[in-house]
Amino acid sequence: MTARERIAGSVANYVDERTGAAKWMKKNLTKVFPDHWSFLLGEIALYSFVILLLSGTYLTFWFDPSQREVIYDGSYAPLQGIEMSAAYASALDISFEVRGGLLMRQIHHWSALIFMAAIVVHLMRVYFTGAFRKPREFNWIIGVGLLTLGIVEGFLGYSLPDDLLSGTGIRIAEAIIQALPVVGSYLSFFAFGGAFPGEAFIPRIYTVHVLLLPGAFLALITVHLMLVWYQKHTQYPGPGRTEKNVVGYPLLPVYMAKAGGFFFIVFGVTAFLGAVASINPIWLYGPYTPAQVSAGSQPDWYMGWLDGLVRMAPPLESYIFGYTISWNILIPGLIVPGILFTGMALYPFIESWITGDKREHHLLDRPRNAPNRTALGVMSLTFMLVALINGGNDIIAVTFDLSINQIMWFSRIAIFVLPPIAFVITKRLCLSLQRADRELVLHGRETGRLVMMPHGEFVEVHEPISPEKAWILTQHEQMPALALEEHDASGVRRPKALKNKLRARMSKAHAVSIPKATAEDLKQIENH
Amino acid sequence: MSNEIEAIKDPGLPAHVHRRADTDPKAAKKAERQVAILFLLSAAGTVLLIASYLFIPQDVFIFFPILGSTNAHQLFLGLGMAASLFFIGMGAIHWAKTLMPDEEVIIQRHEFRSPDEDRAEFVKAAKDGAEAAGLGRRSLIRRTLGLSLGLAGLSPLILLGDLGPLPDEEQKMTSWKKGTRLVTDPGDRPIRPEDLEVGAVAQTLPAIAAGEHRKLSDIAKDAVLLIRLRPEEFNLDAERLSWTHEGIIAFSKICSHMGCAVALYEQQTKHLLCPCHQSTFDVTRAAKVIFGPSARPLPQLAITVDSEGYLVAQNPFNEPVGPSFWGRSA
Amino acid sequence: MENNLKRLSRFRRHRAVAPLLLVLALLSIGTTFSVAGAATSTPITAAERSALIEEGKEIFLKGCSSCHGLNLEGSAIAPALLGVGAASVDFQVATGRMPVADMSQQIARKDPVYDEREVEAPGPEIPGEEHLNYERDGSLAEGGELFRTNCAMCHNFAGQGGALTRGKYAPTVMGVTSRHIYEAMVTGPQSMPVFSDKTITPEEKLSIIKWIKAAEVEPQLGGAALGRVGPVTEGLLVWTLGLGLLIGVAVWLAMKAR
């Protein structure tokens, strides 16, 4: 035994005698993780969270979350002598007086944007591969929760410096709170400590932003990861991979090196953006005052769809018995997002209700093999994209010489018309791809080589595909639609007949598929 | 289930393909050197970070294509940091890919469902425990427990009562009173009608006493936009016309939709545009909404001139300014 | 002799020759024109004024009267020019907006058709302008406050420009001569309102110009400015460069090494 081994041994012994750690360490050091680049998207989000914690902590050492009015006397000449809040002044000091301050501010903000983008692409991967099915429904709900909290946390974060752009955003948020029926004014006065903007809001959201929400994130992310750890990660279908195994690499050393290394990659790329690209140049915006506003005021990208929905909303307000209900704010700001996110959170249960599938799934779906689900996903993305684009309609108008009025009308119509079109096109595409897969299995790959037959006919030579490829193209399960009887054996109409009818119809639409190639089919072709 | 149709069989894990570094020691050494270079690049990045922090002054600017004239301290500090982190990652990943074992390992999944005896034991333990607690039998305890916990849960809400004052009539009023002078924002200079040409706008606030200081909460309700048109361009009823003065009309600058500042005046079309959600108001028709999501026109401030010829408010606003709220009657 | 010729002709058929020759040709044509076409401006003395007015009338009749009328009375497609003032004329003509090249929703700034001397001809000198010290007088910080209160809602916080209704736009204020910025504030061209000298004093106008000029030359303090239009371009960068780099590395990470 070398000296190093002896020291390591005595440390391990010390810990194990007190905790029994060797048992679970042995199990977990050899834990196997499947390897695919699309499994790293969630990691981008996770590592961005760590970067946010680190860079955010750095910023808290200099940031003063107070709306007390001060006169600026720092080094940025165009703002000298200007009245501003201490929060804004401290953000300027971080940007100009603290060495590395501007870099860390930019890393923090870029990291937040990457965090949200990574969550969205990770969500798309999980959705389109059906990884949310049993036993992972609860983890999906946690994920939707993380997405929602992320949007709030990001909004609060960029509002902290109290500059003109983010102050405008707070004004709009206050209008949403105020618009709530019955309780709106009370909640607004409570949140702001009186009338807008007051002097209480920035210090309060500071507490939420650095303490309450990060705490919630830590808890939720821990549960999210523990579930992945315990339930084991899903894997893409392939030769040798079944519902009952996991094929991959052990935690020590491969996964640790790759995943650990990827943390440094994410941090490095974020730092690169912080170095070369300016983000939120607060010194140009100036301090917030309600009498000023900038042309082209938008929230950060992950709230752009909300802004777009609010912009395209029709000017509807109701007045009943002396009370006002602002539909033009409630519908785009709360009701539609509420429906969307609730539907998203409940989707695993909706899909299992439609398919009647109560089994565990650990093999991922190729999106084309679940045409209905894929089409629904693309439809939702189209909706969000139209809303997002409308959120930037004035920037688009100035850049491409268009009219904001025309873009608005386009969006108002497109948000209803484009998603169903996207659904139909996507479903057709998936079915086409299934057909192509079937062709590939039964007839092989087209090589492009033409051969003349003895009797003069030209045929293209097809090369049969490998058994591994054939397996990937046919391993998926094609569940039949639910058959729900309206009447039972005696001809008596069942209760819940209407619900069952709806369910049966949706199940039938969901199960539309091109039948996959089977060995039987192959044999028939060979015997031709 | 369709078991008569024979499915295509799983051919099993394909044979392992070795990497060059697995079999060729020279390739392994080469990979090792590559990893080492990557780690050294990271070290160089850290050196650049430290050197930039300590030695580059914060007011030096150098020119780069695409970036333009950029702050050298910030740029090199950041690039150093980026390199220092990025290449550790590249080194670790390259090491794992080329030199660490890449033979795939298979482990079996276990069913999550607990065995039946465990389940039965859990049910028994839970039931016995509940029985022992006696909640089921002792309804008096159950009900008073619920009452005490529910009330205790209320207390945090009560304790947060002083988060803010209750909204009151203050919410509906601004600082504008009869005779309040309109002054320029910024500058605090009173305005005469002849100061404004046709087609001119002015940002205004209510005059305050000398030494007084405006709070942002006041500005958030008091900001007013003055616009001068030719009197014949107005399309107003008699009352609203009497709120103008020699073609000068005043509106609350706080958007009736969600409260952004509305001051984007198009001189030729006589339209006001709010940049936040593109609500468009027609100045000739008392800021009637002609496009966009706002449901109400901007409140108009009745103005006239005082004895010294300065523009003043005739009366306070006739309605609350800013976004709508539940208690706002039509 | 033959060796030299051979050396030259060796490159004659190089595939870079054609594009290189094209670039060279374009450069030489362009330079020739710009050098030849550059006009020099000469100072105008009071004695030449009457001759200048005659010249101005000629220019007006030739280049402006078809739309604005022989007697400045205007027409269906152009406003009357009676009493518009020198500042307005200078702004419109010297920024190239007039004569109009493209009668679309909004008349854009372009290269001026008339040189500086010809611009001065159609109208008298702008009264009081000789007292204005652009870019020297005025307060930088006050200018910023004034800009954000009076200008940013149309021209954006950094003067990059913004959208108006129905395809109109507030153009960027960057790269505009100080005098023309001043004239625009005073005359209120096209959709822009007038900013009277009593509500924004000449001193304050100079402050605004000072701030604009400082913003124009302000170096990038945090890196590439991404257009100074806010979160839209920032989000675009994340979804293209940011995620692109990260997913690129992820794909490389999961690929089997050779």
UniProtKB/TrEMBL annotation, chain A:
The Cytochrome b/b6 N-terminal region profile domain, residue ranges: 11-237
A GO CC annotation given for this chain: plasma membrane
SUPFAM superfamilies in UniProt: Transmembrane di-heme cytochromes
UniProt-listed Gene3D superfamilies: Cytochrome Bc1 Complex, Chain C (1.20.810.10)
Subcellular location: Cell membrane
Annotated EC: 7.1.1.8
Principal localisation: membrane
Cofactor: heme
UniProt keyword annotation of rRNA-binding present: no
MF GO annotations: metal ion binding; oxidoreductase activity; quinol-cytochrome-c reductase activity
Matching InterPro entries: Cyt_b/b6_N, Cytb/b6-like_sf, Di-haem_cyt_TM
UniProt keyword terms in alphabetical order: Cell membrane, Electron transport, Heme, Iron, Membrane, Metal-binding, Respiratory chain, Translocase, Transmembrane, Transmembrane helix, Transport
PANTHER family the UniProt entry points to: CYTOCHROME B
Protein's name in the database: Cytochrome bc1 complex cytochrome b subunit
Organism: Candidatus Planktophila lacus
